[in-house]
Amino acid sequence: MPIPQLSVSRRTRSTPFTSRIAAGGVKAYTVYNHMLLPTVFRSVQEDYWHLCQHVQVWDVSAERQVQLKGRDAARLVQLMTPRDISSAQDDQCFYMPLCDENGSMINDPIGIKVADDTWWLSIADSDVKLWAKGLATGLRLDVEVTEPDVWPVAVQGPKAEALMQRVFGDIVNDIRFFRYKRLAFMGHEMLVARSGWSKQGGFEIYVNDAAIGQALWDELFVQGADLNVGHGCPNGIERIESGLLSLGNDMDDSMTPLQCGLDKYCHLDRGLESLSVAALAKQKAEGVPSRLMGIVVPGMTQPPQTAHVLVDGLLAGEVTSHCVSARYDGWLAFALMDSSAIRTAQGAVSVHTEQGDFDGLCVELPFDFNAIGDSLRLR
Amino acid sequence: MPIPQLSVSRRTRSTPFTSRIAAGGVKAYTVYNHMLLPTVFRSVQEDYWHLCQHVQVWDVSAERQVQLKGRDAARLVQLMTPRDISSAQDDQCFYMPLCDENGSMINDPIGIKVADDTWWLSIADSDVKLWAKGLATGLRLDVEVTEPDVWPVAVQGPKAEALMQRVFGDIVNDIRFFRYKRLAFMGHEMLVARSGWSKQGGFEIYVNDAAIGQALWDELFVQGADLNVGHGCPNGIERIESGLLSLGNDMDDSMTPLQCGLDKYCHLDRGLESLSVAALAKQKAEGVPSRLMGIVVPGMTQPPQTAHVLVDGLLAGEVTSHCVSARYDGWLAFALMDSSAIRTAQGAVSVHTEQGDFDGLCVELPFDFNAIGDSLRLR
């Protein structure tokens, strides 16, 4: 369909950075956690190359924080996730599936241990606050569930570290991957983590004061002028090339983390007090009915309107996200593939599109472009 | 800001009617319950007059159903709402605030008693499924919480009854306001209620089969050709003139239903087993700190970029929704007004805009245009 307009209202919440984003030439948004999330500035392709070569500042305020505070905060986090959080360090960020008692995916936040009695869940697009509040109310847990005024800003790209050093000092070098430090800007401390929704490197700043956040935003652009700093946002091509899954696009509550390739975040044999471990252990023993895989069609450089993955002439799964690669000469997709079809395919599938049928590869995620290399050339 | 584009993805779910909506010339969407909801076809003004004079077919699939099924279904509904549902008839639709133990607004669905052990909550824009599931899990209730494949279609406008008669027969005349019947189309029964998010009259059809729904959609347009049937959607002007509140715009979880003028849906002295009645009874006794009111500026016919409501020169509240009326010669707004300012104002406020300052009225909602009539002329 032609690209429609978005009607912006109070319900599609703006952020402290919306006026700067507009001045920066945002072309399109999505709505994520009831909030505006930019999706395109120049074009998705131009944004991609800029991200991979320079440094971008992203308004990812839509990554809302759900704060769990109280004596039972860690217990509630553990109830919600099959990942063992007992070893969480004081400065650690944990990627974690949240699942219900059927093992269904509710969300896949980054959990941040802010204090012994306080966790933040930096969430994907579903109302985790309501899930956590419902559980806390029903179980009479000693925990307060809120959405604090925190608007994350991401600084992403190969020059991110250089830019962050200029603004926060050399201490940013000491922040390890998926760890955070409390750094001051204008005398005001904020959590700064080495993380972000790209594989180009960078940081996320958990801005908790709107006015200081705006000053920080402007300072990043002043300090980064000679680094070719630019506006940006999570990029639809980069995230697929990098194998980053998106809740609602690639994962939903009809699926378990075992179907999403998140096995390593499911600790099923540690006796955790977690709602989902029994159901997940059962599914692990029985085998998953379907699983997210990567699909590659070398040489297909026009994005198809529709794409069906076939094995032996039969529909073998459902494409959940796809793009024409910017870096490689081909088309990349994530697809929820029937387990039996994965076995039958032995790596070879057919992709049916309105442009015709194409031979494709079916591979594990994330894509291993070195292994695929022979058939998928750099552009 | 200039009107941005909406990036449509699998996460911003399409509906069985999206292709028909696109063919019908949709200009803009919002995202509501993670789903596309049309907002404009011709222009908001043209859509308004067409709605008020003819009949429109709306894709309101984004009014998702949360189904509660099991022995404890009604108990869970009652826990979630301060409205007494004990007298619910088998064919009844109940508008109901959903509130947590603080009395905070979680959602304001229409609750539909589908069977003794089955309720549907036809929700506004928040993940009630997670709230209900969390409570059910924590309290170990015997209830299954799901989002069934139901995509409501609304038929709204003064000719709605005539059109519905042609498609479903004279039996539609017998459906009372906020009641439903099970009516067949192509031999397939669906719930049909006399309801809808306008005050122009009409019905909502709870389509539960995508293919039959598409055939029904097309039949409504065939049968309605001489009635000037058209595409439409909840209309930003009509809903404000009619005093219809919108969750996320006018109400959120920083407010209680008593602040939203929903007192008559709060049964606080019946000993209900409801999470929120204690907090609401306390607030009722103490008085609300602020309350949604209507603001009217006769003669202001250009929509302001910013509008602040002042009483005695001081900021007296926050505008939550506003429009230039299509029918009356003036500007209409909802505003969350400080209770003390309401008392001081005695009906007279000042509205500060970038166009200048205007004298305005502060009135109870819904607007009583007969009472306001002297100062607000029909166009």
Structural write-up:
Two copies of one chain form a homodimer. With 379 residues, chain A is α+β, with helices and mostly antiparallel strands. Chain A folds into three domains: 18-61 and 150-240, Gyrase A, domain 2; 65-149 and 256-286, Alpha-Beta Plaits (2-Layer Sandwich); 289-379, Aminomethyltransferase beta-barrel domains (Elongation Factor Tu (Ef-tu), domain 3, Beta Barrel), CATH 2.40.30.110. Helices cover 22% and strands 32% of the residues of chain A. The first copy, chain A, has helices at 18-23, 44-53, 73-80, 128-138, 160-168, 210-223, 236-241, 277-286, 339-345, 369-372, and strands at 5-6, 28-32, 35-40, 55-59, 65-69, 93-95, 98-99, 105-107, 110-115, 118-122, 144-146, 151-156, 180-185, 188-193, 202-207, 229-232, 290-298, 307-311, 314-315, 317-324, 330-338, 348-353, 356-363. A seven-stranded antiparallel beta sheet of chain A has the order 19-18-22-23-17-21-20. In chain A, strand 7 (98-99) and strand 8 form a beta hairpin. In chain A, helix 5 (160-168) packs across helix 6. The first copy, chain A, is globular. The interface between A and B is large, with 50 and 50 residues.
In short:
Chain A is an alpha+beta fold and 379 residues long. Chain A folds into three domains: 18-61 and 150-240, Probable tRNA modification gtpase trme, domain 1 (Gyrase A, domain 2, 2-Layer Sandwich), CATH 3.30.1360; 65-149 and 256-286, Alpha-Beta Plaits, CATH 3.30.70; 289-379, Aminomethyltransferase beta-barrel domains (Elongation Factor Tu (Ef-tu), domain 3, Beta Barrel), CATH 2.40.30.
